[in-house]
């Protein structure tokens, strides 16, 4: 069976309405408190018993008002496209007929639908919602106006000079009608324009026009677009004394840890509260919000309340009673809060939270002394549902805006205990991933709690103890936000600074990321602390690679940080780092980028950086000279990196100084030929003779030689002869390395050259700098991106750097080896210490080696 929705005021008559629906009310005396601080607050907000009636009247007056539109001409000129000039008031039936023809039947909204139903609304309209034309029988049933535009809060109706009967605009305030007859009783409606203004959320109707024609213009009244969000009017000076009393009552409630709520008089759309915050409040709600905020602000921070606005819904389900003559509550009403918005003491919406709990009938601030149903009076929706077997059921639903004042303030002692407990439970992400997330949230909430009270060193220390790592400070969900808030809290920052430094000193990568973010977001206080932390960090060499993201950002900070000390710190750090050729090249490249991105900043600090650049030059030159040293004739035939471990005898020969050898004792010529075949399978003879064509193989094995079977029977042997294809190739690479080191030395020198805009290497190696953006995007953790950015280094870094000076081949050769060998062969590849031909990433090998030699 389908659902039928209608409003109680829907004129359509359904037989379910013949049954009696009795809603249980509670008198005002059962709501809130009849004495004590909450009651005092009621009285103070209501302005005392005596003033209450007067206030009520004022509020009624502001709730809606109207009269003669004396600023408008008595006979406004009105002309309508397709009709022509309209002479006002409209009297002639023929004119009316013509006018109706250029208009449309006005629709109305229900939920998200726009409907036309003359039983609900019967009027002609032009230019949607602006010009209305009522004939006899025209009317508009009870409704509230939708917010047609952002910031709309009221409706202005201007009735043009009209000669008609009926057609009053009746506005309901708490169910009581306030009628506007637009001058009918005063006899001025035909001769003047009249107006009426009402809040858009106020329920209103237009009674049927019984005679003549009524013409009206309808306007939406909106807050100005540039009005500050959350604006609540300052309270007039004469209420200051009331504020003290209010504040005292609030304070007492606060000490009792009392949370309470207050039903707003007006209704608000979720959107308007979301858009405007406290500034959406109207009339009496606005006054009271202003007074409560002012009183709240008078209290010390730890006693203050937080303010929320919530959409409250109260739903009751009814079933037919046993006598089938009325509806009976099936269960107690269900009260629900949703769309909660936090308005803080200063009225700022800072986030969304869930209500701490529901409120009992005693937790209601009820300055207007309303009964339960009086409080809930608002949008009531009734829905009748035929549930089949169980018969029809009726549901009523009220929704209402409420303001709640929640106090979430445990005592300092309780908090300290809690923090100590939390500390003992401090989880690691790996150990308790689920708990960690809760923990992160808790930490964030705790920050709010602690920040909301006067600074308490003990409490704050405990709070800081609970999250000691840079990861939590920086990478947790709200870590960064909390860190920034810490900066604006002088006492806290004073004592947190050292902890922050220590935390980041344990994680160079995070320190760099945080430094970068601080620069971008102007968190200036954080920059020196992070740069101090950086000096104490270890070089983040992961998997043997320099991290160009790290280096780039570090140097960027060195030049861009407002304080020169940051640059000095970084230089100090780099001077403490072991220097080798890879370090030098990475440094040079990062400095080049920094120089390119900010030539002036670079120049201003290049004198500070000079020692680092000089150190790079020294390291590069040292490496260059080692590589440039010519090889002795003896060493020329030592293929000391030869990789032929499937046959140890062959490998021993290759690594030794002899040019040729014989493998003997093979037993038969067949066996000798088999050995040759096996060798040629691995390294074909023609490969050993043709470097250009087969360098991929050569590089894989780091040798070149031929094999030939000879002799017969027991004397059969295999002759191995080294060819100079490999050593020549090796020589070529040595030469290239020297050139590369030379180029890098030149780049380093060019860095400090006067008036040179970092273009020294724009033609050669810097092409790969384009990979920079990619590296940053990958957060420096993407190995392939990092490798890409390191490409110019790899021209060198996989090559031998041992004192012996023998080479192992190019990057291409490494790749070739990997694809040529089987997995098991690769497995056998790893060598002892000192051998540079392990399977690790190229940079690692060299890195390991240089580290050792540096030590
Ligand atoms: O005709 C009027 O006075 C008011 C019409 C109205 O309530 C509306 O257009 O929403
Ligand atoms: Fe309306």
Automatic annotation (TrEMBL):
Residue ranges occupied by any Fe2OG dioxygenase domain in the UniProt entry: 125-223
| Annotated PROSITE patterns | FE2OG_OXY (PS51471)
Entry superkingdom:
Eukaryota
Composition bias type Gly residues, residue spans: 764-781
Which InterPro entries does the entry link to?
A: Oxoglu/Fe-dep_dioxygenase_dom (IPR005123), Pro_4_hyd_alph_FE2OG_OXY (IPR044862)
Q: Where is the composition biased (Basic residues)?
A: 844-855
Query: Which parts of this chain are annotated as the region Disordered?
Result: 758-855
Give me the stretches of Low complexity compositional bias.
802-823
Known PANTHER family for this protein? FE2OG DIOXYGENASE DOMAIN-CONTAINING PROTEIN (PTHR33099), MYND-TYPE DOMAIN-CONTAINING PROTEIN (PTHR33099:SF7)
Q: What is this protein called?
A: Fe2OG dioxygenase domain-containing protein
Q: Which organism is it from?
A: Pseudozyma flocculosa
